[in-house]
Design a protein that fits this description.
The protein is of the alpha/beta class. It is built from 21 helices and eleven strands. Helix 6 runs antiparallel to helix 9. It is globular. The termini are far apart. About 4% of the residues have low confidence.
Length: 515
């Protein structure tokens, strides 16, 4: 009897060992395709009452077009006749440095083209600083071409503004010697500001530089007399700003994979960004270090005069009046209440989700087919977008010097009255993760650390991820924003997507939740 048990145990061990080897072999052979797993593993909801083929009343309610808006067609061409075409005889050149993320870059370019036509100036291709600040990125994609197609941009606006790639050589030498004025216009400036403040300087120096850092250098709603400039901004946003071919190809492949088996998909952008959360005072919606990070940024905004309120506010009261984003679990409940089944395909957009993947866990639990770009793109496709880059050394963290006994004594004396001191806690090792990154500078420093070369490169890469998310969100069968139109006058990702969807296909399903 014992011998049989031994043989059975031995057989079990052999089978277990063989199973482990088989799994290791499969994992190794499919390592390059592991990121496709979410696409291949899309589970179909077998309980659909109205399938995509039948397209019954339930399907039309969730995915169908808005009947009242179907007759609307996009049209941004000039309607004033005659519409003067620019020529080489103008007031001079305008070059610009654009700071900020994807939303601020896109809005700034639209305003910059309108300002160039308003001042009758030649526009030099804008410089996107977030890509230029990163060292070692692909030499094939630099500045404006890191995101957009330069030649299509110039050709699409040939009837509106004269655009050149660079300044003429003589003028470029003058720029290097800092001979020309450089101005940072206030955010949402009026047309009169440019006509009365900028135009005289442009006529005098023939070259002027603009620094755009707040996401918009021209007021959003122009007077009725300048309606053609409003249409010009539409032509820039929806016709001239074409992403480069590598980005378009990967984005369209992502859309095709999401729509596999003829299924529709919904795109969702959480809108959880540190800047926005700090501006509206939504720190209490988070926990631990994230609350401190938001409050630190809010304190900076108060010092800069961006916020006129105090540091501590009631986050739950703010959320009650709609000033804070909807949390992912709330969005999940809303979608389920509207009738979206648990197997709905949801694309999670946004290169930055403050709080990380942890805040998305409840939504993923409610909708199993929630995916993002990491689930839809292979490593090779990501490499094709980024291009060949120089490898950067890893960030080396330097521990702060230990304090001497004299310094510790001085700090103790300055601390003031205190209760009877407790015995010191036992010593324990200080782990690396407690000293670097967010935890380290919040605990030990009053200022945010400078970005490392790897941080700068990651910022540049975020522009590419946002571009992919933008295309997938615009093409989605339905779009749900977690936060938009927040009143801060800063451009937001969801607002850009909703505007593009309204222009391109006004009847498509785009939700505007009442927060």
């Amino acid at each position: 009897m014992r011998s049989k048990i031994k043989w059975a145990a031995l057989a079990g061990l052999v089978l277990s060992f063989a199973s482990i080897l088989l799994h290791m072999f499969l994992a190794k052979s499919s390592s390059s395709l592991v990121q496709y797993s979410a696409v291949a593993a899309f589970t179909e909801d077998l309980n659909h009452i109205d399938t995509a083929v039948g397209k019954g009343a339930g399907y039309r309610r969730l995915w169908g077009k808005v009947m009242a808006l179907e007759p609307l067609e996009p049209y941004a061409n000039p309607r004033t006749t005659p519409y003067p075409v620019p020529d080489g005889q103008n007031n001079g050149f305008i070059y610009a440095k654009i700071y900020g993320g994807f939303e601020k870059i896109r809005t700034s370019i639209c305003d910059l083209v309108a300002v160039s036509r308003l001042l009758n100036a030649t526009l030099v291709i804008p410089e996107i600083q977030q890509s230029l600040q990163s060292k070692g990125i692909s030499s094939k994609f630099k500045s404006f071409s890191y995101l957009y197609d330069e030649q299509k941009f110039i050709a699409a606006l040939a009837s509106d503004v004269v655009i050149v790639n660079t300044l003429p050589s003589k003028l470029m030498e003058g720029r290097k010697r800092k001979q020309y004025p450089v101005i940072k216009p206030p955010s949402s400036s009026s047309p009169n500001y440019y006509l009365h403040e900028i135009l005289p300087k442009l006529k005098k120096s023939k070259v002027i530089g603009l620094i755009l850092a707040d996401g918009g250098c021209l007021q959003s709603i122009l007077p009725s007399s300048l309606v053609e400039y409003q249409r010009l901004r539409c032509r820039v946003a929806f016709h001239a700003l074409r992403f480069r071919v590598e980005i378009m190809e990967v984005a369209h492949q992502m859309v095709a994979r999401l729509r596999g088996s003829g299924q529709p998909y919904l795109a969702y952008h959480p809108g959880l960004q540190r800047e926005t959360l700090a501006y509206h005072g939504c720190a209490e919606l988070f926990q631990d270090v994230h609350t401190e990070l938001i409050q630190y940024r809010r304190a900076q905004m108060i010092k800069q005069g961006i916020i006129k309120e105090g540091l501590s506010v009631d986050s739950y009261a703010r959320k009650g009046n709609g000033s804070c984003p909807l949390m992912p679990e709330e969005v999940g409940l809303l979608l389920r209440a509207m009738g979206y089944p648990p197997r709905t395909r949801i694309y999670l957009a946004g290169s930055e989700t403050f709080g990380g993947q942890r805040v998305l866990i409840p939504l993923r639990a409610m909708f199993a087919n929630s995916v993002d770009r990491t689930s839809l793109c292979s490593k090779q496709e990501i490499t094709n977008i980024i291009g060949r880059e120089t490898e950067l050394p890893p960030d080396l963290f330097e521990f702060s010097p230990s304090k001497s006994a004299k310094q510790l004594k001085e700090e103790w004396d300055k601390a003031g009255p205190r209760p009877r001191p407790l015995p010191p806690p036992p010593e324990r090792p200080i782990y690396r993760h407690e000293k670097e990154g967010w935890y380290g500078w919040i605990q030990e420093k009053d200022s945010e650390p400078d970005l490392s070369p790897n941080d700068l490169r990651e910022q540049a890469h975020r522009l590419l991820w946002d571009a992919l998310d933008y295309i997938v969100s615009v093409e989605a069968d339905a779009f749900f924003p977690g936060f938009d139109n927040d009143g801060s006058r800063w451009p937001d990702f969801s607002g850009l997507v909703m505007g593009h969807r309204l222009f391109k296909m006004a009847a498509s399903k785009t939700y505007r939740p009442d927060r």
